[in-house]
Amino acid sequence: QVQIVESGGGLVQPGGSLRLSCAASGIGFSIYTMSWYRQCPGKQRELVAVVTSSGNTNYADSVKGRYTISRDNAKNTVYLQMNSLKPEDTAVYYCRAAYDLIHWGQGTQVTVSS
User: Labelling 21: which of 12, 59, 98, 100 has CA 20 to 30 A away?
Assistant: First the structure.
């Protein structure tokens, strides 16, 4: 059974940092492309960051220089380090695993507010 479980969300003040984690099980994690998406109320889900099986990364323009995606294949986990957070970063953040099939987590809420 495939499980994709995000954690690490919460409430943070503008300028603060959070680190999200996404633990995967039931898949051959190392061959999967892992991504973080986010969705604000009333908006479409958007790609935030992606890391391929070979470790190549890419970011949305809105988060470049502030977010860092990384993966630990030994722990079947992908991380999203988020720095210099802004109120507009407030969203539900979802982890996505993609290879032959696509698997999504349930999401974790990130709220940036003073």
Answer: 100
- Average pLDDT for runs of 10 along the chain of length 114: 97 98 96 97 95 98 98 98 97 97 97 97
What is the Cα–Cα distance from 108 to 89, expressed in whole angstroms?
A: 13
**Beta 108-112 vs 10-12: how paired, if at all?**
parallel
Q: Cβ(84)–Cβ(19) under 8 Å? A: no
Q: CA-CA distance, 32 to 98, in Å (whole number)?
A: 5
CA distances to 4, 76, 78, 99 from 53, rounded to whole Å, are 17, 12, 11, 10
SS3 105: coil
Q: Give yes or no for a contact between 14 and 114, defined as CB atoms under 8 angstroms apart.
A: yes
